[in-house]
Amino acid sequence: MSTYFIAFICVCGLALGQVLFKLSANLFNSAGTVFAFKPLCTLFSATLLYGVMTLAWIWVLQRIELGKVYPIMALAFVIVPVMSYFFFGEKFAFTYYLGVFFIVVGVALASFS
Predict the structure, then answer these.
(1) Are 21 and 46 in contact (CB under 8 A)?
(2) What are phi and psi of 6, to 5 degrees?
(3) For the segment 6-64, what is each residue's pLDDT rounded down to a tens digit?
(4) How far apart are CA 50 and CA 45, in angstroms?
(5) Is there a contact between 106 and 83 (Cβ–Cβ < 8 Å)?
(6) Which of 2, 31, 83, 91 has its CA 20 to 30 A from that of 101?
(7) Separation between Cα atoms, residue 103 and residue 75, nearest integer Å
(8) DSSP SS3 for 89
(9) What gap in Å lies between CA 86 and CA 82, rounded to an integer?
């Protein structure tokens, strides 16, 4: 069970990495140069987080079959938009939320099969 928890942590870490990538893009845009310190630090943090999560994912894959654990990765399609709503104020149509609902149902069905 703890391996699935680590897999979920990987998904959350990768989702946070996506938010950091978007933040760095916004910061680069505001700075007007690719040499600004703050956007570079944010980009480095996102890349480092991706690297650590990749190593954790490899650890997970040593213990669980890919086909059994991979549906958990679909939760990134839920977590990233939620984070983008709170961090960037992005808005989505009702049909988007309906699609996210079906992703959650699909992950649940795949996980319990």
Answers:
(1) yes
(2) -65, -40
(3) 999 999 999 999 999 999 999 999 999 889 999 999 999 999 999 999 999 999 999 99
(4) 9
(5) no
(6) 2
(7) 7
(8) coil
(9) 7
- The amino acid sitting at 102 is F
Expressed in angstroms, the distance from the first to the final Cα of the chain is: 15
Q: Is the dihedral of CA 70, 111, 107, 45 positive or negative?
A: negative
Single-letter residue type at 12: C
> Six-digit token pair at 27?
């910061």
> What are the structure tokens assigned to 92, written together?
């989505």
CB 104 within 8 Å of CB 71: no
The answer for residues whose C-beta is within 8 angstroms of residue 21's C-beta and 6 or more apart is 43, 46
Which residue shows structure tokens 């939760």? 75
